[in-house]
Specification:
This protein is of the alpha/beta class. It contains seven helices and six strands. β5, α6 and β6 form a beta-alpha-beta unit. The radius of gyration is 15 Å and the shape is globular.
């Protein structure tokens, strides 16, 4: 994540735009995933991003502001692009809105598959007057026909 912060030019972008404080929001895990793993796996990634930005003079703090409300245990990773969008639609919530208004936010995730979860989280944060400036992810899956079709249905 440290290398990703520098490769993304986020630090330079912040200074160029006069932004000296960022809220680092880890992407939420489903309740089932948290129970199974015993943790939110993106929290450590978000902390690494915040620490890197702090070393560069940016006031960056992690805020676990989001939650997923899934009632089933089926992993979202098994769904196609359309299924993923349907699954996250209406199931992302802000659990702590305090301090989000007019804050610049960086979302942190381990992998982006179709972008459905990141889009839903960005929309929810924006509804609470937060400004999502970027999302940092360790990995992504290649774009394919499923993603292209799902994007055009939006």
């Amino acid at each position: 994540m440290i290398h990703l912060v520098y490769a993304s030019s986020l630090v330079d972008w912040c200074y160029k735009h006069g932004i000296y404080a960022l809220c680092i929001v880890p992407m939420p895990s489903s309740p089932y995933a948290i129970m199974k793993r015993g943790r939110t796996q993106t929290l450590a990634l978000a902390q690494a991003v915040a620490e890197t930005l702090q070393r560069e003079g940016i006031d960056a703090h992690v805020q676990s502001a989001l939650r997923l409300n899934f009632s089933t245990t089926k992993a979202i990773r098994t769904a196609d692009a359309k299924g993923r969008m349907q699954r996250v639609h209406g199931n992302v919530a802000v659990k702590r809105a305090h301090g989000l208004s007019n804050r610049h936010v960086v979302l942190v995730d381990d992998i982006i598959t179709t972008g459905s979860t990141i889009r839903a989280c960005t929309k929810m944060l924006s509804a609470h007057q937060a400004h999502v400036v970027t999302a940092l992810t360790l990995a992504s899956t290649p774009c394919g026909p499923g993603l292209d079709a799902a994007m055009h249905e939006r």
